[in-house]
Amino acid sequence: MNDQGKHLQHATRAKLRKFNTLRGEEVQPGDFWDLVIVTAVDESQRVAYELQIKDKIARKELPLGVEYKVFSDPPGAKIGNGGSTLYVLQRLDSIYGKALGKFRVILIHAGGFSQRLPNASALGKIFTALPLCEPLYQMLELKLAMYVDFPSQMRPGVLVTCADDIEMYSISEDESVRFDKPGFTALAHPSSLSIGTTHGVFVLGSDDKHARKEMEYVSCLQFLHKPSIAKMEDTGAVCKKRGDSISLTDDQFVYTDSTYYVCYTTALLLLSLLKDITPLRCEVDAYGDFLQALGPEATDAYTHDGANVHKREESLVAVRQKIFRRLSGTPLNVILLNNSKFYHIGSTAEYLFHLTQDPALRAELGLVASAFSARPGADGPPESAAAVSCVMHSTLEPSCSVARKTVLEYCRLEARVTVGTGSILSGCWVDQGLCVPAEVFMHSLCVTANPHQPAAQPGFVTVCFGIHDDLKRSVQSPAHVEELTLLGLSLTKCLSHWGMGEEVLKFSGDCSLWNVCLFPVCSDLQSSFSMTLDLLQAVLKGSTFTVPSTTQLMSMHQALQLKNLEEMLTFRKELYNDIKQKRSIQ
């Protein structure tokens, strides 16, 4: 590890230690955030988030004396994280009025169904477990820890960030990251040009392109949203590396975005913007649509660009133009964090790599192989190991075997269970002697199968996909299901191993793996996992397994709609108590 890596590791560990001293303690005004806001996509997700935050506070896993609030998007059309930002400001204004002008607020965008990392779908990606510290960290704690120094150096306003990324940085000991300028102030990280094509990129003046220190304050001429390399070069966004102040090995690089701060006055400007574009019927990006309107060289050309839009609504161009007119002329300040890292954990592949194979992140954060688990004989390999298994908040019998590059979270494994390499198991209770193959994703959920019946009993569903399956890809109609790939085979081929014809296949929405009704509803967790594993093994072994005809089948989409949050959290609490008991005996 070079000097820059050591500085980054030292700075990151210091932030973790500081945050750990605040967990479960009453914080003093100015030492931490006045408001911690988490967004949710709908009311169901809001309830799930509030339940988990309430439990965290009760277990003293978060700083106390702080207001934690969850706001859901309004029902109707998707509004994007930009729309969520505006509606959160509206809610805060209605609750606090002018008193909001004294608050330091962190706003964490955590809405969405996490189709690329489905173990985070039911309970939220902001509550994704991480193999770090005790009590066990989730993404919420890590976000708060990495920004633990910000509130004391920040004027009243709002820090906007996302739930599925990790930013780490180091600066000189006599410096601090200050958010004290009007307008927007964004953090910027040196990145390769290829990374720049999937992120926001800052165009700096010629005098600001030559990094001299670990941190520098500059003004931004223009912000580009997911630009091509040609666009970066044409606008002058590309910087040339000089000296050792930049940790990248590339000779050329760009500064990419992550988190930004909005001063209170500018927050009021955004609040007035909402009145201009209400009712909002299109997705607004808190980065692309807000930041592209800023800087002296900004133009409204982006308002007509639909290249990075998931679904282009008719009102999008008009809304973007109103945003541009309202925000034009607002300052965009940039803090260059020249010794920094930006990690994204938004897919199963990223999740597996960063938790089991990434030595840099493991060293910087101090990630371990076994975190808050009853896993006899597993103290975890040294940080230098090329790959590890990762077990979090789980109990395993001594005779269990978990291969490297595999992640287990919130699981109970009985005797002689084996789990293959490169798999993810989440919320599962695995009966003794079962063998889980390599490179599969298995996730158990509790559901209320018949919600309209009085005193409906909970059921359990275990979904299963290949690690590399595309759950979002859809086909035109059920007649084209052979174009969908499940576990490396066409869905039609899988159906033949399960004694199912295409004519009986049902979807709970568009024709995608996310919506295909394949997974049996059972009366208990163990049976649910075992039956889905039988389906999986039939495909992999070329045999046949038929689910009883009276068994209800669900899709991942349906399981989320009918999820029983209390039961899922109860299972985690039971694991928590068992782990505490077993570790006290060892």
Task: Give a description of the structure.
This protein is an alpha/beta fold. The strands form 7 sheets. It has an 8-stranded mixed beta sheet. Helix 1 (3-22) packs across helix 11.
Main β-sheet: number of strands, strand sense, barrel status? 8 strands, mixed
- Outline type: globular
Rg calculated over all Cα atoms: 24 Å
Overall average residue pLDDT: 93
* Strand content bin: 15-25%
**Computed structural class:** alpha/beta
Unreliable runs: 379-383
Write out the strand line-up for the largest beta sheet, numbering strands in chain order.
13-14-17-20-23-24-29-30
Fold blueprint:
Layout: H1 3-22, E1 35-40, H2 43-58, E2 67-72, H3 80-96, E3 104-109, H4 139-146, E4 157-162, E5 165-169, E6 184-191, H5 193-196, E7 200-204, E8 215-225, H6 229-235, E9 239-240, E10 252-263, H7 264-277, H8 288-291, H9 316-327, E11 332-337, E12 340-344, H10 348-356, H11 359-365, E13 370-371, E14 390-392, E15 395-396, E16 401-402, E17 407-409, E18 412-413, E19 418-419, E20 424-426, E21 429-430, E22 435-436, E23 440-448, E24 458-466, E25 474-475, E26 485-486, E27 489-490, H12 491-497, E28 511-512, E29 519-522, H13 525-541, E30 553-554, H14 556-561, H15 565-585
Parallel strand pairs: 1-2, 1-3, 3-4, 6-11, 13-14, 14-17, 15-18, 16-19, 17-20, 18-21, 19-22, 20-23
Antiparallel strand pairs: 4-10, 5-12, 6-10, 7-8, 7-10, 8-11, 9-10, 23-24, 24-29, 25-28, 26-27, 29-30
